[in-house]
Design a protein that fits this description.
The chain is an all-alpha fold and about 290 residues long. Helices cover about 75% and strands about 5% of the residues. It has helices at about 1-30, 40-55, 65-85, 95-115, 140-165, 165-175, 180-185, 190-215, 220-235, 240-260, 265-280, and strands spanning about 130-135, 140. Helix 1 (about 1-30) runs parallel beside helix 5, helix 1 (about 1-30) crosses helix 10 and helix 2 (about 40-55) runs parallel beside helix 4 (about 95-115). The longest helix is centred in the first third of the chain and has 31 residues, at about 1-30.
Length: about 290
């Protein structure tokens, strides 16, 4: 029973962090109708940014979270016009063009990282590393707990922004129908840049926490592309609130399969569930996606 409870807690804590990646990825698809293959590379760059900042400035990586959000927001804002150019105009199959563009962007970033930093595995520590909170028979690793709190707070604040502000209404209107939103006066290009910048900023910040929890290397992003796909498919494409349920489910599957079966079968379990979801509920487990 103790092992079951501990596995449940570990899965929930990891799921909280994955939610942040999934929220940005889902909104990116909802507004721009592109599947961003570069999501894992934003995570990887966030982790590396924390590593190099800690190495040269000698402060705890948590201190740099606002700076990393600002840097990645600016990078996403600058990259967005290129994506917009790839998917707009009279091009055939704009969704496919977006997919190819982000795949190329992912390959370029990963190749650049391998050339610059090689295959060396690095790590970064925070003041929370090695700390834990014990409650009854269960233990909450402090860094995972901080990642979960960060994930919940970031998601709640983002949802408040999305559903409680005028700009959030413009973003949701653009996600539902871009042409109609444009006719009503929404600057869909500016909204797209804002969404992609926010998505890149949130994903970069998540990369800092993932880098502190696990190892940092140039190929680490591939796993998070799969996780983002899993979360968005289960949540329903473009349905942001469903990402919370799907992210927690991913964390629990990863934790329970790793403990009770083997970590080698985690991806197999995820793909099996994603396949069944597409067969039984193609609009997501809450049946609210596109």
């Amino acid at each position: 029973m103790e092992l079951f409870l501990q596995t449940l807690i570990d899965g929930g804590l990891i799921g909280g962090l994955i939610i942040v990646v999934g929220v940005g990825f889902s909104l990116c698809f909802g507004v721009m109708h592109i599947v961003d293959f570069a999501v894992g590379e934003w995570v990887m760059l966030g982790a590396y940014a924390a590593y190099w900042l800690v190495r040269y400035l000698r402060q705890d990586p948590m201190v740099y979270l606002p700076l990393i959000f600002a840097l990645f927001f600016a990078a996403g804002w600058l990259v967005y016009p290129l994506i917009y150019r790839a998917v707009s105009g009279r091009r055939h199959h704009p969704a496919l063009m977006g997919l190819v563009f982000t795949f190329g962007l992912s390959t370029l970033i990963k190749g650049g990282a391998l050339s610059a930093w090689g295959y060396h595995v690095r790590s970064v520590s925070t003041w929370l590393s090695g700390q834990s909170v014990t409650l009854g028979v269960t233990t909450f690793p402090a860094l995972r707990l901080a990642g979960f709190v960060f994930g919940v707070l970031a998601t709640v604040l983002f949802m408040v922004f999305l559903y409680g502000t005028r700009l959030g209404v413009s973003i949701r209107a653009t996600a539902q129908d871009r042409e109609t939103a444009a006719l009503l006066g929404v600057d869909v290009r500016r909204v797209g840049a804002l969404v992609y910048g926010t998505y890149a900023g949130l994903t970069g910040m998540t990369g800092v926490l993932i880098g502190a929890l696990f190892s940092i290397h140039a190929a680490m992003g591939a796993k998070y592309v799969i996780f983002a796909f899993f979360v968005v498919v289960l949540a329903g494409m473009g349905y942001v609130p469903g990402v919370i349920v799907a992210g927690l489910l991913l964390g629990l599957i990863q934790s329970f399969v790793g403990v009770y079966i083997s970590g080698r079968y985690t991806l197999l379990a995820l793909f099996l569930l994603m396949y069944l979801s597409l067969l039984v509920a193609p609009r997501g487990i809450l049946r609210r996606g596109l």
